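Dear colleague,

Following up on Tuesday's group meeting, I ran the structure prediction for the two-component complex that the binding team flagged. I've pasted the input sequences exactly as they went in, so you can double-check that nothing got truncated or mislabelled along the way. The structure tokens for the whole assembly follow below. Feel free to forward this to whoever is handling the docking comparison.

Inputs:
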Amino acid sequence: MKLAYDGTHFSGFQVQPNKRTVQGEIEKALNTMSKGSFVRIKGAGRTDAGVHARGQVIHFDYPKAIPADGMLRALNALSSEDIVFYTSDIVDDRFHSQYLAKGKTYQYRVDNHKLEDPFTRLYAHHHPFKMDLERTKQALNYLEGTHDFTSFASAQSDKEDKTRTIYEASVMIDERTEEWVFTFRGNGFLYNMIRIIVGTVLQVADGRRPVEDIPKILKAKDRTVAGPTVAPKGLCMMEVYYD
Amino acid sequence: MKLAYDGTHFSGFQVQPNKRTVQGEIEKALNTMSKGSFVRIKGAGRTDAGVHARGQVIHFDYPKAIPADGMLRALNALSSEDIVFYTSDIVDDRFHSQYLAKGKTYQYRVDNHKLEDPFTRLYAHHHPFKMDLERTKQALNYLEGTHDFTSFASAQSDKEDKTRTIYEASVMIDERTEEWVFTFRGNGFLYNMIRIIVGTVLQVADGRRPVEDIPKILKAKDRTVAGPTVAPKGLCMMEVYYD
């Protein structure tokens, strides 16, 4: 199933005791439907607290045969209004939303107004400093391609191989809201990787760092030389790709 | 002062006992600044609970001389993040934000997706039925000009003269969110007028009423012949005009 959620009022995707999580909400709805026989869901990615999704993908084994569109209607009826299910498909037993994902697209939104826009405050990170679009694009350019992203991964990342390929790292300005919208498309992202990349690129954008720092940071393979991890609320999982 | 607010967590503009209101929040901040000498504010329009503003205007008498930009900084620092003050001016004693307003612009946003978009759910009314853009424009056309809007005013409206002039009643589709964005610019609006107009125009848009009902409803001068009052969350006060 493909779904969207507003992450504002969730303590992230992954189930945790006594917290409202996306996984917890969906499993609660499924358990209501299945009359108690426990259903565990798996997501393509575990978004952090406050992170949003427009194209999260989940899979699960359901104990009874239900048509795909019946499952869609039931879950939309049973879940709260900050989660919406868009599509539902009955898939092969070998399908796995996380392990078979070939790539993902994320967006990160930045509110560059001097005063934070009250209407985007839950969906964008506020960075009220003068930014240069050309420098920002140059910084993003250095990140495209295959690199060891150790410097841009949380020290808590437990993945041994930190090499990833970024197919697209771009920025455009939203005409209506004037937000800076960063798009990252890649074969996989390390823990906090996009938030650390944006935190570092903003330092280049506003002139606190030279553009040439980006290749140096990549080469250093050291988290401490990159910029800060920016707020989760600007991040949104847009799409997951499968063969 | 010109300000914006996200109306979601306010019980409207006007102060009410034991409720969180826009006026109440601002007066609380002003009273903190003035160390207890009470300051009453006046707004250009009293938005209802859940209604938003991007261009509300307020005025007040402040007991001490403070530079306009100092007032702006102080109120932004003291108020919660769902209110933002954009401009501040020291005006003539005769200025009045409500009585001297020559006109206003409002927007009303409609989410026409089959399933409600979780990211616009607090700022748009969900209307999941097939709508015809041409019919919608024709209906809006009938409303432009000077009319007695009795049929489109809440029965609770206490204004005796219900004649108003609408300079612009238009609709466009937001490219990014695909919302239908209605714009109304006029010399004044009666209580609930825009929400009743939109409730009626949506009945034309989705085919439940013929376009020719609009002039008939105007002529009837009877609230019961118009459509329902749609949700406050879709409405936003965009601009107030003065000479």
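The two ends of chain A are 16 Å apart (CA to CA).

Cheers,
M.
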